[in-house]
Amino acid sequence: MPQAVRLDSVTKIYGGAGRGGRDVRALDTVSVAIPPGTFTAVMGPSGSGKSTFLHCAAGLDSLTSGACWIGGIALGGMNETQLTKLRRMHVGFVFQAYNLVSSLTVRDNIILPLRLSGERVDRGWLEEVLARVGLTGKANARPSQLSGGQQQRVAIARALITRPHVIFGDEPTGALDTVTARDILTLLRSCVDATGQTVVMVTHDPVAASYADTVLFLADGRIADRMQSPSADRVADRMTHLGAWA
Ligand SMILES: Nc1ncnc2c1ncn2[C@@H]1O[C@H](COP(=O)(O)OP(=O)(O)OP(=O)(O)O)[C@@H](O)[C@H]1O
Predict the structure, then answer these.
(1) How far is the CA of 179 from the centre of ligand 1 (A)?
(2) Residue 16 forms part of a structural domain
(3) C-beta of 125 in contact with ligand 1 (< 6 A)
(4) Does ipTM top 0.90?
């Protein structure tokens, strides 16, 4: 089986973006292979390249050099239309801001990726997804009628509806209170354990990272360390040594 996500010697340089118009090497020859059915957290100090890593891995940003694959599909050489199609069908996104369409119902928000790519909606699967995220009975509600945690559940359902190879999260619990954040992390964990999705999540929060199987620590655009079966304390300790909270 192919890796869910693979980066091979990926470098991303933002031209002239640094002090004095210098180039910024946001990612520096990063290689990583993320197996299917695993949960990976990406951590590191501010500016270490976490968002760039996520954007490059998800095909949202072009690479300066190197190569990326999602579910064994090479992103290199694809034009923007092909990349959009690949993202719609094989990648789910969950952001800190839920990015729901306020004028659409919960149901219509969830099935939006299918509508955009002209795919049929499987009603049974939609009901199952609603049940999995704990929103049975809320299909006709509008986002404004839901709590923040419930809105994030809609975003996760929308990410699951296409049965993607991988779900990318960018601080998905960043806007939530501690208790609600734990519910959402438990839900992401169950996506991995119950149905073998792959989750890759950027976070600043050691507790959030402790839900993952593996933590990748970025520093200056490189993978500085990785940790298996992390605990919040060990992650916090490692972050302190990276100078993240100096
Ligand atoms: N679009 C861009 N144009 C120019 N420079 C950029 C761009 N995006 C990121 N950078 C630079 O690349 C480096 C890595 O940024 P990135 O956003 O990936 O870091 P991060 O670890 O996600 O940071 P944070 O935790 O603060 O969100 C930084 O120096 C940043 O200023």
Answers:
(1) 29
(2) no
(3) no
(4) yes
Beta strand 65-70 with 5-14 is antiparallel
Tally the residues of the chain.
Answer: 246
Q: Which atom of ligand 1 is nearest to the CA of 44?
A: 21
Which residues form the domain of 164? 35-61+89-241
Ligand 1 neighbourhood includes 47 CB (under 6 angstroms):
yes
The verdict on residue 3 lying in a domain is no
Q: What is the DSSP letter of 229?
A: S
Tell whether ligand 1 has an atom less than 6 A from the beta carbon of residue 52. yes
Token pair, residue 209, equals: 């990272």
Output the CA 85–ligand 1 centroid distance in Å.
Answer: 26
Task: Render pLDDT for 120-160 as a digit per residue (tens, 0 to 9).
Answer: 999 999 999 999 888 999 999 999 999 999 998 999 999 98
Residue 191 Cα to ligand 1 middle (Å): 29
With respect to residue 226, please indicate whether it lies within any of the assigned structural domains. yes
